[in-house]
Automatic annotation (TrEMBL):
Similarity comment: Belongs to the BAF family.
Record's keyword terms, sorted: Chromosome, Cytoplasm, DNA-binding, Nucleus
Pfam families: SAM_BAF
Gene Ontology biological process terms in this record: chromosome organization
Protein known as: Barrier to autointegration nuclear assembly factor 1
Gene Ontology terms for molecular function: DNA binding
Organism: Cynoglossus semilaevis
GO cellular component: condensed chromosome; cytoplasm; nuclear envelope
Length: 90
């Protein structure tokens, strides 16, 4: 398994609550602002999209690329973060 960032570990360590979209691994200030402009202002809203896409890696990564211009590393980091959170809490 690939190593995970501190941001990833912090996110997966606790319930999502009202966390900002920028707390997601792979989502920094620039991508976070783009997502917020499209209504995805909280981590749980992005998580909802993740669930709507049935936790499908390819669909979610395509959506992230199309929505905010995330590159493949950012897409993978965000997907992994949400998937691991799912495994821990659902």
């Amino acid at each position: 398994m690939s190593s995970t960032s501190q941001k990833h570990k912090d996110f997966v360590a606790e319930p999502m609550g009202e966390k900002s979209v920028t707390t997601l691994a792979g989502i920094g200030e620039v991508l976070g602002k783009r997502l917020e402009e499209k209504g995805f202002d909280k981590a749980y809203v992005v998580f909802g999209q993740f669930l709507l896409l049935k936790k499908d890696k390819e669909l979610f990564q395509d959506w992230l690329k199309d929505t905010c211009g995330a590159n493949s590393k950012q897409q993978g980091d965000c997907f992994g973060c949400l998937k691991d959170w799912c495994d821990a809490f659902l």
